[in-house]
Amino acid sequence: MSPRHCAAMLFIAAAAWPLAAPAQSIHFGRLFTTPSERQRLDAVRMGGASAAGGQTAVTLPDATAAPAPPPPPPAPLTVNGVVRRSDGRTTVWINQSPQTGGDVKTAPGPRQPTVAVPLPNGGQAQAKPGQQVDPTTGAVHDATQ
């Protein structure tokens, strides 16, 4: 038998093979899951509660749901102290954190210097050591109040 005849017979056999197979539909299903996992996945996809395993379905937030509550107001800013060095540099403590360099703006006062406390809205409030500033309104009051 010549190689051409072998190739022709192989081609005919390959073409006829699906006809010789049983008349069943080939369905691979979902791979790598058990029937109970598939049932749970189907339930989650349909929007219902999970079927087995006691797990809850993940749902997206509804557009008609109530909006998230606003964030809590920022904590008051307390000017704890000011130190002016003989070389001209100044350190200001706000909420127990030292602030130095270009961020610190002070103005001399009769007894205590006034500190320009930056506010979240871009403004500034003038406060002395021992005073608190409300960052939302800029109101200044003694820390003991």
Structure, described:
This is DUF4148 domain-containing protein. Keywords: Signal. The protein is α+β, with helices and mostly antiparallel strands. The protein has a domain of 66 residues. The chain has two helices and eight strands. The chain starts with a helix and ends with a strand. The mean pLDDT is 75.
In short:
Helices cover 20% and strands 23% of the residues. By secondary structure, it is an alpha+beta fold. It comes from Zemynaea arenosa.
Measured between the Cα atoms of the first and last residue, the distance is 109 Å
- Give the number of helices: 2
- Can you tell me the overall shape? elongated
Task: Indicate the low-confidence ranges by residue numbers.
Answer: none
- Structure summary, number of beta strands: 8
Keywords: Signal
Protein name: DUF4148 domain-containing protein
Organism: Zemynaea arenosa
List keywords for this structure.
single chain; 145 residues; alpha+beta; five-stranded antiparallel β-sheet; three-stranded antiparallel β-sheet; 8 strands; DUF4148 domain-containing protein; signal
List the helices and strands and how they pair.
Layout: H1 3-20, H2 35-45, E1 77-84, E2 90-94, E3 97-100, E4 106-107, E5 114-118, E6 124-127, E7 131-133, E8 140-142
Antiparallel strand pairs: 1-2, 1-7, 2-3, 4-5, 5-6, 7-8
